[in-house]
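Record type: monomer structure entry
Structure origin: computed from sequence
Chain ID: A
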Amino acid sequence: MAASPNVITLIRLFNRCFKQSENTILVKGEDEPVYLPASNQHPHNQIVFAHGFFSSALHEISHWCIAGKERRKQVDFGYWYEPDGRSVKQQQAFEVVEVKPQALEWIFSIAAGIKFNISADNLGGDVSPTAGTFENNVRFQAQAYIENGLPENALQFTEVLTDYYGTRNQLLVDAFRQNKAATV
């Protein structure tokens, strides 16, 4: 029987995988997510995920997997973030930069045996007229990762998840077909 997903296990799996090799730990946060590079106060880089949510942890890990070495030296990888309530134009810019992280999050979700929800992350703002395109772009990127290979850290973490949760046979291109994800 496969293990059920919980954040304590996820933290343990991530930290075992990357604490030594990348000097990076996963931390359960109580507020908004943030990436904090190592400092005098904290000897390890920290991926702090929101409110103890498993999906938030997977999402923040996906951003870390994509960020290069220089971006990992900056708080939140030096990315901009417009809070909830974005205009259509701001939302479309958000969707462009979120395709790869959400594709990785979808892969991690399948690897951990949980449902993935595509997130527009703009509950109080305008709906993008390209929301359907965004979902398709995330789907196509996830399929491309499965067919062509994942970034190195993402591959390593996916293998850890699939080994632990017994889901290796579920990471197929067909897992990312239409209607396999919910949109929030």
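Annotation 1: The chain has a mean pLDDT of 87.
Annotation 2: The chain has two domains: 7-78, 88-183.
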